[in-house]
């Protein structure tokens, strides 16, 4: 399982790219050095609370949303969770089948 710091770094990168921002642009918006954004995205450091608040403002999301990282986990683990859920819920299985086919 990946660490919180690893998943958080991936989440920041995902949010930044979804808004078509470069690391430099995000750093400017958050008022920190570009190297700090790089370190956060590479899971080398975790932002200070002040920086985290600025990231929430820039991305226009809540604190809980910034930590929604389940989709960033290992794909094998995600498949296992999906199959388990499908085995437990026949209606969900039928619904997903209709959506896909």
Describe the structure.
This protein is mostly helical. The chain folds into two domains: 4-68, lambda repressor-like DNA-binding domains (434 Repressor (Amino-terminal Domain), Orthogonal Bundle); 74-101, no CATH class. It has helices at residues 4-18, 23-30, 34-41, 49-59, 63-66, 75-88, 90-100. It is elongated. 12% of the residues are buried.
CATH class descriptor of the largest domain:
Mainly Alpha
Element-by-element helix/strand order: HHHHHHH
* Mean pLDDT level: 89
Through-space gap between termini:
32 Å
The CATH topology annotation of the largest domain reads as 434 Repressor (Amino-terminal Domain)
Task: Supply database-style keywords.
about 100 residues, mainly alpha, 434 Repressor (Amino-terminal Domain), 2 domains, 7 helices, about 0% strand, elongated
Condensed summary:
The protein is mainly alpha-helical and 101 residues long. Helices cover 70% and strands 0% of the residues. The protein has two domains: 4-68, lambda repressor-like DNA-binding domains (434 Repressor (Amino-terminal Domain)); 74-101, no CATH class.
Give the SSE layout:
Elements: H1 4-18, H2 23-30, H3 34-41, H4 49-59, H5 63-66, H6 75-88, H7 90-100
Helix pairs in contact: 2-3
């Amino acid at each position: 399982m990946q660490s919180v710091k690893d998943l958080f770094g991936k989440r920041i990168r995902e949010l930044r790219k979804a808004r078509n921002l470069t690391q430099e642009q995000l750093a400017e918006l958050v008022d920190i050095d570009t190297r700090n954004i790089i370190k956060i995205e590479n899971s080398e450091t975790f932002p200070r609370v002040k920086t985290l608040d600025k990231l929430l403002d820039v991305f226009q999301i809540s604190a809980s949303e910034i930590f929604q990282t389940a989709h960033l986990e290992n794909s094998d683990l995600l498949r296992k969770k999906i199959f388990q859920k499908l085995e437990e819920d026949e209606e969900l299985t039928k619904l997903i089948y209709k959506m896909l086919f």
